[in-house]
Amino acid sequence: LKMSWLWLYLPLHLLMATCLCHSIKAPTTSSQQSFKADLFNFYHSLILADGKETTIHLLKDIPKRYYFVLEEGRVLAPFSITVTPCDVPIEWSILVYKSLPGFPGKATPGDHDTQEVSKSQKAPSMVSTIFNYKGNSVETYMGMSSHSALYLLEFLSTERDTHITVYLTTDTTSGHLYPELPMDPRIDVIGVGHTTVTLAWKHSPSVLQHSESIQYCLLVNEKHNYKSLCAAETAIRSSGMKLPPTLGLSLSPYLLEPQQVMILSNSELSIINKVSSGEVRQVCMGTKNTYTVPNLSPSTQYYFDVFIVNLLTNASAAYTGTFARTLEEPEPKVTEMKDGKVIHVVLDGKKQKFYSLQYQARHKKIHFTFQLCQGQIRVHITRNGKTVASENLSGLRYVSLKGKLLDTYLVQLRSTEESNSSVKVQASPHFHKPLFPLLPESLKIKSFSKLRTCRSVTIAWLGTQEESKYCVYRKRIEEDQIWRELQSTDRCSGPESRHKSEKVLCKYFYDLNLQRAVTTETIKGLEAGTFYLFDVYLFGPSGIPVRYHSKVVKTRKKC
Fold it and tell me: Where do the Fibronectin type-III domain residues begin and end (predicted)?
């Protein structure tokens, strides 16, 4: 009698499994093995929560199983299951364990699940597969079941470890976790330019009902479309980047990584990520259903995905992605060079395009001078269409060429890094009238650690055999500013860009013996334990300065 009371405390799923065991009469060997396997699958599965999105992590080639039993007391219970793969395609299926004759709550003849029983299952079997799918699309199954049925969901990834989200609900009348898509979920490309693409899409019914908590977010990339928001975020993370939980909630600048740039303009939030496969942009624009994507590269194919995001639940739904190719950039304009005139060229590293200069020779010998101001630049020179020089610029560079009268030289410049670069260029037949002063063997500034004190620093630099003017400047900086200050230095800028208070001194010197053409200077009046940035400017006959490489020195903290 006491043992019989224990049945009252058993969960419904254990009771059903026990009844299944005791209801089978003398099964054959094959059916017995099959049923034992079903019971093994059941006992090694987890319960799936109702009304809550569940994240499930899958290991490669290892199936994972979840089960659920629908609410008792209802003859027919509607339910829906939505599975969202967040990376690679997966396989998933729904199996139903039917109640046996004599067990309360038999399935009705019109049961939706009975109609979808797989043909591969034989009638005597207690288990049937009612749904299976393989792919990486967001898939929803809707069904109607008797309360005595037990369901098993099986998930498998055969490509690699991944994760998915699963949402089970038996409440199909009080709204949806996911925002609704319109009847036509396509994104229309309504305009394409050299650097812009204009998109439009139909409004989600959720926006009209809950405009305060719903917004559209756009993802732009150069790789492919994504079928869900979690798939897009997984792809970006796999490139070595951390992302905020969702596009819709990526509103805090404190969540940004060094590879990210956040732009807030006209109530629109843009986050630009630098990844190995190109640039990935996230733009959230509220409830507007048109958007012009700016600052794209010409002649480049982009993929566009729009997600409707519920800010309260983090849930999202994806429109059908589209793609477009920006127009080819027109032929670049060619700037004519004149004898002795200096041209300052600024190159956009993002566009990676050539800037062209043309020079027609009036003498047989031609001298090109390049002074690299910022970044990294590659120069390519052709004469009458044939390449005569091609190299990466560094510091100050002279290129001397010999040809014929009226030869046409084309100088093409391109930035080799993503940030902006700049260079000064001069073409002249008169090498005896150089634009820049005679340079020493090295433009490095040396400091002497042993001569450092709390109030002074001693530095030295090389000179030349030509008497020239040298001016020394100092600037106090913080330790966390050093890298940025050195990287952003414009090596073409002269003392006119410096504050008067930063000037230390100017002096003239030279030595015919290059081994002795070195000078030192002790800068006094400094503060203890402080970082200082020192610069030396060299002036030649033309008055155009050459800047030595900046040097950072810290005074002693205690003396």
Answer: 179-316, 437-545
